[in-house]
């Protein structure tokens, strides 16, 4: 390694003597330029001085070129050495003076440094102690650790960031003091009072006040993070030699300086109030304690009390004034730091580059700041939401919704701003408390106070809420209407309690009629680990060609179900449920929907009830074969029961079977499925129905189809045969249907038959709680089916009541539960087919009865509705046989005409052979046709419903007004008999039953918590209190005239005490630093 140059040795010596590096380098530059100007006056202004600190060589640069005159080079190097030597001599002379005056002077500077060192290390040792206790508690106390983690998740990343800054800054200060400032104790004050304490105070204030951040507050966070390296590098006097790294540091310094300048500007609006408030209080104090008149007399007063008040009051005022000066002192410090960095960059890169860089940095900072300051015009979104309520047509609402939906995030932010305005902004533009404060303190005019207020609102734009606080709750309610969820939707995700365990579920299918039909028995066994007796509830649906024909209950299935009026059966069940006695209830809740309730599943403490045996239930139904096999129950609800797939077994004709989705099949049924598309023969029922022969006929055998159908792997599509029909396609576009695949079914239907809209008259309706005007579908506008806007709440019952046009049939697609009944009715003079996705929910009896009466049904596939509609429209005879009823795969034909069978005088007493599954299915179809032929509302036709019940009872199957109930003793049977004679024996409840679980498990329905920001009350709950000053803002609080109050930093908590303590330390420290600087200046 080469020997160190003379200049480098002198530089090191000067630094070791305590000379500031930047100070002697700056003086070298100035003196060399001064000398150069004397010798070369014409060129001096375009030259920059660059000193090589390793060799001592000096270069004069112009446009990055060395233009040093050869004669001037030794002169420049001599000047550089002389400056350093002079600085060394001055420092040595200072040391001599201090040494000689040790005895004579008290060394006030030394005492000041000692006091600052005590404060610094006392402050930080307390921090170390607190940190140690926190780490120990977090490490060894499990509950405390969980509580801390939960608290972090609760307060969010923004507040956590500031708390981390407040916790980390002291640690950085300690490390810096130990590592770099051991011999420079005079820098401890700067480190503590201009770096550590301000950052801690600012971080804690921001963490505890503006707790719901805006982009502008995140920008503030970024500036605070910038301040850590910027101030540290300055205090520690660390020199950066890399041009790129220095450019980054200059950008950080400039950003922080500009931000501090901006904050000081904003604080200047508050500073006059502080001075005015202090002056007024001092004047009031003097006026109360002294009377100055012509005789200059004094009121009697306590001198000791006055002296104490003056001393402590003066100290208080000094601290307040010191804190008030803090923004300007910090800005001054940051200005020095920035310009020092700028000079260092000029030495490395030249002034042209540095000036351009500073302009670019300033522009970048302004762009970032402007971007973070942006606030969307929340008023326009809220105004649009408010309009919705007054719009009575679907189309008007849809137009607004289409404008709002793409901007959901902005609409949400508008409400978040409105709801959390006091947590996100320092004020709202409509707040007048700054204006009122100026009027109160300075007694200025309204115009002058308003000008100050408006100027501040403009200057503090990023931190002032620009929207209006005066909004009604209508907009908030309509937010949920448009977007399908409340603004602050919170769910308590309590898992549904399931206290019953399914021990086994055995599903046996016995086929008949050459595999065309099957009688399926579902047998289940239950147990519970709970000590209390339990109830279970199933809701399920079956296919169109299905009928429930049996129910059994008991450990040995010894209690058979009986058919009874629906209302009487349910009331009997619920009475026995309250008495904790054994019943089971199986009722029909829609065209294809059923509900099974079983009680009790004995608890572990009820050994006597079933003598230690498990409760069992069995129900059976008859169904036809379709393209996937035999339909299994599709459960929409399995309440209070844990179902394990391993507990379920499947059999067909006592042999093993497999499931295909929601269907049961084996090798024989698969062969039968393959033959569906080719088998067109009529199958005569083994037994007659009402003295006439009946036939089971495949739908593809209908002669009127003329081969216009598709049949692939047993799946039948008759849409090609649908021509000349006028029907309505009604699509639920409420928000809860947004993610459904029902619209995909419609699009698939039109793709498979492109001529469907040309060969039929199709009206497209959209609905939620309103019904749109119809749109006639053509091939040119079928794209409307894929361009749906989902919003609002669904009310499909009310929608159907508004459907005025006559159609051949209507198809309504919805995933929504049925709305509560009002005076509306779905009864129409044409079939209504309701399509749900996957599972079909329960309906109330009135709605289900009107759908059946209209000739409609409920499906999960729109093709099933189309197939049924085609067959009904064709209504063709076949080989001299008369069509009677149409189903999904098969239809029933009879020798007698349908009219003859329907007008039988004693139809309610017709009985069939219950051992013939086809006859039982036909009996159900017959009752459906009877219902369809009945005119008027069924609700008031009790005698007619009695007839339907008698028919269902004679033939032992469940129907809409007739339920199976399994009872275990004569008392229950007598109760049922008595209730069956009441006038309300068919009465239905409008809501599904809920299990009232005994201790050991309780249902907690999901709740949504909606915070209404528009109600009155305290500002902590967000009230629309005009002019109320905001809680939680750490400034002087003046009356706003709106009933609010100033509460400083919020609740007087431990965090508030920490902030106040740090504020006191900061104020005291600034006083010490200022007096120390003044003393040094006077001494020098």
TrEMBL record:
Membrane-spanning intervals of the chain: 114-136, 156-181, 188-210, 216-236, 256-279, 306-335, 356-374, 1055-1075
Domain VIT: 488-623
Keywords annotated in UniProt: Membrane, Transmembrane, Transmembrane helix
Name of a matching Pfam family: NusA_N
Keyword 4Fe-4S: no
UniProt cross-references to PROSITE patterns, sorted A to Z: VIT
Matches recorded under InterPro entries: NusA_N_sf, TF_NusA_N, VIT
Gene Ontology biological process terms from the UniProt entry: regulation of termination of DNA-templated transcription
GO molecular function: DNA-binding transcription factor activity
Name the UniProt record assigns to this protein: VIT domain-containing protein
Organism this protein belongs to: Candidatus Woesebacteria bacterium RIFCSPHIGHO2_01_FULL_38_9b
């Amino acid at each position: 390694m080469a020997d160190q140059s003379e200049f480098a040795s002198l530089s090191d010596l000067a630094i070791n003597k305590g000379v500031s590096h930047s100070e002697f380098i700056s003086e070298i530059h100035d003196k060399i330029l001064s000398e150069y100007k004397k010798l070369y006056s014409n060129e001096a202004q375009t030259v920059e001085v660059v000193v090589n600190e390793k060799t001592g060589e000096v270069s004069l640069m112009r446009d990055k070129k060395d233009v040093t005159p050869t004669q001037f080079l030794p002169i420049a190097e001599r000047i550089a050495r002389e400056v350093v030597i002079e600085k060394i001599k001055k420092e040595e002379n200072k040391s001599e003076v201090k040494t000689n005056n040790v005895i004579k002077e008290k060394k006030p500077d030394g005492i000041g440094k000692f006091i600052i060192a005590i404060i610094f290390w006392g402050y930080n040792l307390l921090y170390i102690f607190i940190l140690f206790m926190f780490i120990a508690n977090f490490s060894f106390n499990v509950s405390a650790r969980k509580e801390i983690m939960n608290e972090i998740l609760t307060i969010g990343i923004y507040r956590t960031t500031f708390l981390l800054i407040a916790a980390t800054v002291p640690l950085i200060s300690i490390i810096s003091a130990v590592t770099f400032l051991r011999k420079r104790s005079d820098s401890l004050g700067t480190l503590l009072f201009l770096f550590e304490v301000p950052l801690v105070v600012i971080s804690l204030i921001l963490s505890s006040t503006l707790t719901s951040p805006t982009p502008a507050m995140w920008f503030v966070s970024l500036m605070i993070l910038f301040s850590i390296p910027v101030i540290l590098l300055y205090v520690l006097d660390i020199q950066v030699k890399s041009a790129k790294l220095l450019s980054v540091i200059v950008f950080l310094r400039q950003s922080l300086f500009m931000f501090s300048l901006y904050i000081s500007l904003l604080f200047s609006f508050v500073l006059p109030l502080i001075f005015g408030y202090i002056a007024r209080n001092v004047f009031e104090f003097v006026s109360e304690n002294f009377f100055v008149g012509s005789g200059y007399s004094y009121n009697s007063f306590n001198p000791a009390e006055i002296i104490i008040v003056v001393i402590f009051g003066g100290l208080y005022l000094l601290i307040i004034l010191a804190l008030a000066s803090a923004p300007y002192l910090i800005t001054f410090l940051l200005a020095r730091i920035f310009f020092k960095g700028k000079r260092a960059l000029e030495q490395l890169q030249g002034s042209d580059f540095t000036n351009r860089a500073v302009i670019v940095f300033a522009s970048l900072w302004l762009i970032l700041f402007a971007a973070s300051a942006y606030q969307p015009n929340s008023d326009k979104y809220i105004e649009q939401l408010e309009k919705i309520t007054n719009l009575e047509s679907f189309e008007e609402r849809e137009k607004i919704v289409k404008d709002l939906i793409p901007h959901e995030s902005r609409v949400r932010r508008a409400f978040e701003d409105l709801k959390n305005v006091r947590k996100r902004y320092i004020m709202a533009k409509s707040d007048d408390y700054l204006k009122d404060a100026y009027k109160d303190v300075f007694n200025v005019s309204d115009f002058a106070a308003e000008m100050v207020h408006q100027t501040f609102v403009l200057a503090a734009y990023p931190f002032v809420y620009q929207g209006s606080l005066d909004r009604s709750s209508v907009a908030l309610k309509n937010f949920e209407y448009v977007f399908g969820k409340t603004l602050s939707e919170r769910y308590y995700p309590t898992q549904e309690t399931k206290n019953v365990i399914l021990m086994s579920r055995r599903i046996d299918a016995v086929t008949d009629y050459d595999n065309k039909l099957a009688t399926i028995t579902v047998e289940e066994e239950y147990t519970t680990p709970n000590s209390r007796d339990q109830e279970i509830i199933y809701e399920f649906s079956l296919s169109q060609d299905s009928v429930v024909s049996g129910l059994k209950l008991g450990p040995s299935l010894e209690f058979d179900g009986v058919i009874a009026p629906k209302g009487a059966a349910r009331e009997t069940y619920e009475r026995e449920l309250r008495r904790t006695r054994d019943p089971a209830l199986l009722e029909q809740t829609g065209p294809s929907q059923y509900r099974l309730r079983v009680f009790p599943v004995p608890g572990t403490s009820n050994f006597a009830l079933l003598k230690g045996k498990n409760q069992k239930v069995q129900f059976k139904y008859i169904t036809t074969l379709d393209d996937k096999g035999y339909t299994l129950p599709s459960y929409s609800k399995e309440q209070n029961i844990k179902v394990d797939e391993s507990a379920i077994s499947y059999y067909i004709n006592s042999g093993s079977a497999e499931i295909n989705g929601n269907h049961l099949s084996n090798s024989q049924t698969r062969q039968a499925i393959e033959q569906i598309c080719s088998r067109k023969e009529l199958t005569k029922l083994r037994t007659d129905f009402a003295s006439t022969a009946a036939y089971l006929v495949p739908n593809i055998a209908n002669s009127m189809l003329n081969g216009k159908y598709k049949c692939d792997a047993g799946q039948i599509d008759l849409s090609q045969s649908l021509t000349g029909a006028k029907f309505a396609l009604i699509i639920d576009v409420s928000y809860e249907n947004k993610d459904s695949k029902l619209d995909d079914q419609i699009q698939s239907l039109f793709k498979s038959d492109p001529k469907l809209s040309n060969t039929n008259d199709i009206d497209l309706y959209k609905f939620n709680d309103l019904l749109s005007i119809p749109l006639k579908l053509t091939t040119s506008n079928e794209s409307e089916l894929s361009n749906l806007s989902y919003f609002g709440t669904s009310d499909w019952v009310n929608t159907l009541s508004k459907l005025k046009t006559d159609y051949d049939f209507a198809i309504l697609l919805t995933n929504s539960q049925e709305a509560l009944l009002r005076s509306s009715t779905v009864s129409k003079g044409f079939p209504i087919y309701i399509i749900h996705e996957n599972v079909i929910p329960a309906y109330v009896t009135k709605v289900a009865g009107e759908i059946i009466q209209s000739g409609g049904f409920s499906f999960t596939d729109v093709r099933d509705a189309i197939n049924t509609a085609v067959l009904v429209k064709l209504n063709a005879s076949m080989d001299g046989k008369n069509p009677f009823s149409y189903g999904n795969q098969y239809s029933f034909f009879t020798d007698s005409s349908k009219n003859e069978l329907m007008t039988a005088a004693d139809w309610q007493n017709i009985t069939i052979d219950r051992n013939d599954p086809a006859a039982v299915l036909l009996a159900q179809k017959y009752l459906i046709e009877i219902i369809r032929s009945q005119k008027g509302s069924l609700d008031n036709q009790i005698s007619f419903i009695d007839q339907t019940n008698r028919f269902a009872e004679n033939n032992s199957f469940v129907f809409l007004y007739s339920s199976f109930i399994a009872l275990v003793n004569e008392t229950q049977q007598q109760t049922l008999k008595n209730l069956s004679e009441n006038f309300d024996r068919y009465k239905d409840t409008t809501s599904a039953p809920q299990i009232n679980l005994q201790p050991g498990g309780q249902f907690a329905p999901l709740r949504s918590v909606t915070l209404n920001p528009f109600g009155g009350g305290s500002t902590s709950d967000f009230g629309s209190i005009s002019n109320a000053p905001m809680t939680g803002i750490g400034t002087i609080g003046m009356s706003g005239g709106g009933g609010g109050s100033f509460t400083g930093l919020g609740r007087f908590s431990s965090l508030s005490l920490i902030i106040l303590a740090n504020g006191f330390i900061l104020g005291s420290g600034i006083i010490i630093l200022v007096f120390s600087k003044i003393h040094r200046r006077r001494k020098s």
